[in-house]
């Protein structure tokens, strides 16, 4: 028999050590390696990325003359302290970054751009620097440039970590519709983080262009009266988190986003009553973080109400945070397809 819980009644409590323990590749990339990455033979940049990252992994934990202070005082830089993978969706950047994390020696952290900004919010900037300065490698997936404040925050964090000798690796997060606009880009990246960017070996990973693929078709929501019985029958031995959408959205404002991973720690399947369009941007951005954590953990969703293609307003989907919303809708839709029609979320 399925076990029933409610996320809207759960307050996760984490120590600093427990919070940091979550900075590792997600379930989807828990056992990947450079050997499990399958480069497209028609895209030599993918094979080149493997070679570059393999060499970079070997450099982790070793001293480098390319420190930030050395750069400022004009010392010649023999090696770069960071590597940055630029490319579109579906070319395996996260797989490659996770493979680097697995291959590198020493203490290391792996998280998304948003997770690091949330970590700073939970610990303070100075404590985050002090803690991560003890690591040999910090991997930042889905580096984003749509929030100037967060970009400046992360730029400063990366400069201080680089100065402390920490190796840095990052990937871009490019909206499919913007792939033709300039490769996310190295140009924007260099402009935003100025001197630090020059320490990065920026490598473009070419691959299939998914611009014309669009969002996967959202499954039709189920009748509200049937979703709990449907989920219990489909997942009889799982833990179901059953919540009214409005209650869950309200609860997210009371839980720091750095704790969303822990919030979902006991959840196998999410059952949502009466999904509706979110009109408040602050709430929408918190739900984006929840969507990422659900996707990381591969939590199927069974829902009633509106389809996830209508989760955000048209203005949000066309605004400055559009790539966040596009990603969230895509991921939630994939999880709903898995939960309701049994199609694995990729």
Describe the structure.
- The chain has helices spanning 16-21, 44-59, 68-72, 93-103, 113-123, 125-132, 148-163, 186-197, 227-234, 245-252, 260-263, 281-297, 314-318, 322-341; strands spanning 3-5, 82-86, 108-112, 137-143, 167-172, 200-204, 239-244, 269-275, 301-305.
- By secondary structure, it is an alpha/beta fold.
- It folds into two domains: 3-12 and 213-341, Rossmann fold (3-Layer(aba) Sandwich); 31-65 and 76-205, 3-Layer(aba) Sandwich (Rossmann fold), CATH 3.40.50.
- The strands form two sheets. Strands 3-4-5-2-6 form a five-stranded parallel sheet, with helices on both faces. Strands 1-7-8-9 form a four-stranded parallel sheet.
- Strand 8, helix 12 (281-297) and strand 9 (301-305) form a beta-alpha-beta unit.
- It starts with a strand and ends in a 5-residue tail after the last helix.
- The model is unreliable at 175-185 and 209-213 (pLDDT under 50).
- It comes from Glutamicibacter soli.
CATH topology of the largest domain: Rossmann fold
Instruction: State Rg.
Output: 20 Å
- Rounded average pLDDT: 85
CATH class of the largest domain: Alpha Beta
> Which percent range describes the beta-strand content?
5-15%
N-to-C series of helices and strands: EHHHEHEHHEHEHEHEHHEHEHH
Strand order of the largest sheet: 3-4-5-2-6
Helices, by number, come to 14
Shape: globular
Low-confidence stretches: 175-185, 209-213
Structural class: alpha/beta
CATH homology group of the largest domain:
P-loop containing nucleotide triphosphate hydrolases
N-to-C span: 28 Å
- How many distinct folded domains? 2
CATH architecture of the largest domain, by name, is: 3-Layer(aba) Sandwich
How many DSSP E strands? 9
Binned, the helix content reads 40-55%
Largest sheet: 5 strands, parallel
């Amino acid at each position: 028999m399925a076990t029933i819980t409610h996320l809207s009644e759960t307050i996760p409590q984490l120590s600093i050590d427990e919070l940091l323990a979550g900075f590792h590749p997600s379930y989807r990339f828990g056992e990947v390696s450079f050997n499990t990455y399958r480069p497209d033979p028609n895209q030599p940049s993918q094979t080149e990325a493997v070679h570059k990252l393999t060499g970079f992994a070997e450099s982790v934990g070793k001293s480098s003359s390319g420190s930030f202070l050395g750069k400022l005082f004009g010392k010649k830089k023999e090696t770069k302290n960071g590597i940055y993978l630029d490319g579109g969706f579906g070319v395996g950047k996260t797989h490659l970054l996770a493979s680097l994390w697995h291959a590198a020696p020493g203490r290391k952290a792996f998280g998304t751009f948003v997770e690091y900004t949330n970590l700073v919010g939970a610990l303070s900037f100075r404590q985050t620097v002090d803690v991560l300065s003890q690591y040999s490698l910090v991997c930042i997936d889905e580096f984003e440039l749509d929030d100037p404040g967060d970009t400046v925050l992360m730029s400063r964090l990366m400069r201080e970590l680089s100065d402390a000798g920490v190796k840095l690796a990052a990937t871009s997060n490019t909206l499919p519709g913007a792939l033709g606009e300039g490769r996310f880009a190295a140009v924007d990246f260099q402009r935003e983080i100025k001197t630090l960017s020059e320490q990065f070996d920026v490598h473009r990973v070419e691959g299939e262009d998914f611009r014309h693929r669009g969002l996967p078709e959202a499954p039709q929501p189920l009748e509200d009266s049937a979703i709990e019985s449907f989920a219990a029958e489909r997942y009889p031995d799982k833990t179901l988190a059953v919540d009214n959408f409005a209650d869950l959205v309200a609860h997210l404002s009371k839980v720091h986003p750095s704790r969303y991973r822990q919030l979902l720690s006991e959840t196998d399947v999410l059952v949502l009553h009466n999904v509706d369009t979110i009109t408040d941007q602050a709430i929408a951005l918190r739900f984006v973080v929840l969507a990422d954590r659900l996707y990381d953990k591969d939590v199927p969703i069974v829902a009633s109400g509106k389809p996830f293609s209508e989760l955000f307003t048209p203005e949000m989907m066309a605004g400055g945070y559009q790539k966040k919303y596009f990603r969230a809708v895509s991921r939630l839709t994939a999880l709903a397809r898995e939960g309701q029609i049994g199609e694995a979320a990729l």
